[in-house]
Amino acid sequence: YCVFSLSLMAQQRPQYTQYILNNFILNPAIAGIENYVDVKAGYRNQWQGLSGAPETSYFSVHAPIGKNFLYGTSTSVPQGGGTNPNSRSYLQNYMASEPHHGVGFTAVSDKAGPFTRTDLNLNYAYHIGITEQVNVSLGVAAGVSKIFLDRSQIILENPADQAIGMSANDQFKPDLSAGLWLYGPRYFAGVSAQQLLRSPIGFSDDPVTYNQGRKVPHFFMTAGYKFYLGDDFAAVPSLLVKMVSPVPVSVDANLKLAYKDRFWVGGSYRKDDAFAGMAGFNIGSFMNLGYSYDFTSSGLNTVSNGSHEIVLGIFLNNRYKVTCPQKSW
After folding, report:
1. Is 323 helix (H, G, I), strand (E, B) or coil?
2. With CB atoms counted within 10 Å of each terminal CB, which end of the chain scores lower, N or C?
């Protein structure tokens, strides 16, 4: 059991199937991309039925700052929400955002076996239009990670083994992330890196004799493109590539089919791991909800019932009554 739990730490950040609904949780450059306060809460129960499997909860919030962005600029839309972002006419009316700042906050709690990790980060991004319809943004996030080891869940052959000592259960480590995001009316692309500081992690009473682990950098590359299927329908294929040494490269391929700004369905494939079905809908100009279920395709499918994930979004200070994201759809 101890070996299984420790092996989970090689990929130290949580897995998300619905990254397309909240890329901000992976890339700080998205902070402030819309002209309202974007609040998201997510929960993921991975490999349900498997003892000690990962369980993740998160909360995120981000918003633009600066009067030039919020009032009367190209990012503003008429009262009532403006053009349906899944229609062809939206492409004709789309204009890049005015230069502006974005700020945000993320809190993530991830439990895997005897390990519980909590990450708190403050985010900052700067957005600038490089053409009439294309924006680029740069973002950074800084914060702290708290890593807790529940020794009561570990069974050792030698109870006196100092590789797992009896000193403090909690460790606090600084954290730093950075990202770049490019977006226009029909596409987005981004790169980001988390855990850039490579802080040491160890729970031994004798760190000289026993090697200490480290937080390893996680690199993400993602891109998506919108295809219009008539005036009210759109298809958005997207790709996420995650690189974490020494774990094999992880590749997610997603397809989201949206009708107007009301509801959507989709599917996902994660190489050598899982297939997923997804669905979601927007509730007026205040809330949206997404759900996904992963069908495990790896060897764990004999002991796991799959993975559930739910994401709830709330639009605050939505003065233009937008019912669907205008810049990240």
Report:
1. coil
2. N
